[in-house]
Design goal:
14 helices; globular; mainly alpha; single chain
Length: 286
């Protein structure tokens, strides 16, 4: 029987014992590799064979600003999400399990709410006559309504709210795995709370921060609904530009080229992040 199994593996051209992974490989090929290849072919064949779509994309100052704005927004959203999510994740990690499960359920529940509904809710809250501006003016903190929508501020607030669960989830798992006695030992040795955070808690939580930050950054690069509704024309991101290029201009070649460039840049940043984290991890080992 073992000989027959090895023979079938040899006939299929796969290593022995890898036959069970064949359905997964087929699905990956159909739903990931084939669309990417089709995207690449469309970008170099529409409207005619050549690299004119990439030349127009990379040689235009307008498209360059859209690319720069996309990565700027993604970086700002990622940084703000990490700052907001860390204390929430730490609170969930140290609070009693029953109450922590309740709060955790509320956070997860927000992920199940329709994205468009949440974005429209922020449009109502952030507008000049919205609850936030009226409350601040009623308290005397401001004299005139703040411009909180149709700019980078509105996009950042809306996207941070949407991305928070994706940052909190990996952080909670990492923080719960940290032994509380480590921080207590640092306090007994004379470390201040800031020193314990900077030299113990923060380095130990880096795997969760890295995983969540990468997830938030990559998802932010391709977000469409929230930036389109809360941002303005001066804050257009690449996903909105691709949609307008395909739907309004019917320029499938240029839209495919923009999507493929975004994919390549994202994968390059992901590879760089893995290289940097992989290089630092052995040096930080105990």
């Amino acid at each position: 029987m073992q000989r027959n199994s090895l023979k079938r593996g040899a006939i299929a051209g796969l290593p022995a014992g890898s036959g069970g992974a064949l359905p997964a490989l087929v699905l990956v090929g159909l739903f990931f590799i084939v669309p990417v290849v089709a995207l690449l072919l469309r970008s170099v064949t529409d409207p005619e064979p050549g690299l004119q779509n990439y030349a127009a994309l990379l040689g235009s100052g307008t498209y360059a600003r859209v690319f720069l704005n996309t990565f700027l927004v993604a970086a700002v959203v990622t940084a703000v999400t990490i700052v907001v999510a860390f204390p929430v994740a730490w609170m969930l990690a140290i609070m009693p399990p029953a109450f922590g499960s309740l709060v955790f359920g509320v956070i997860i529940l927000s992920m199940w709410t329709n994205l468009l509904t949440r974005t429209y809710a922020w449009m109502v809250l952030l507008q000049r006559t919205g609850v936030i501006n009226r409350t601040l003016m009623g308290l005397g903190i401001i004299q005139e309504p703040l411009p909180l929508i149709n700019n980078l501020t509105g996009v950042t607030i809306g996207m941070v709210y949407i991305m928070l669960p994706f940052m909190i989830l990996p952080l909670v798992g990492t923080l719960r795995a940290i032994d509380p006695m480590t921080l207590r030992a640092a306090a007994l040795c004379g470390a201040t709370p800031y020193q314990a955070f900077r030299r113990i808690l923060l380095p130990l939580s880096l795997p969760g921060i890295t995983a969540g930050g990468l997830m938030v950054f990559v998802m932010s690069l391709g977000y469409y609904v929230t930036p389109a509704l809360l941002g303005g024309t001066s804050n257009m991101m690449l996903a909105e530009m691709i949609a307008q290029t395909v739907q309004s201009l019917l320029n499938w070649g240029l839209g495919s080229a923009a999507a493929f460039v975004l994919l390549v840049v994202t994968m390059a940043l992901y590879a760089l992040q893995l290289r940097l984290v992989g290089a630092k991890r052995p040096a930080g080992g105990l």
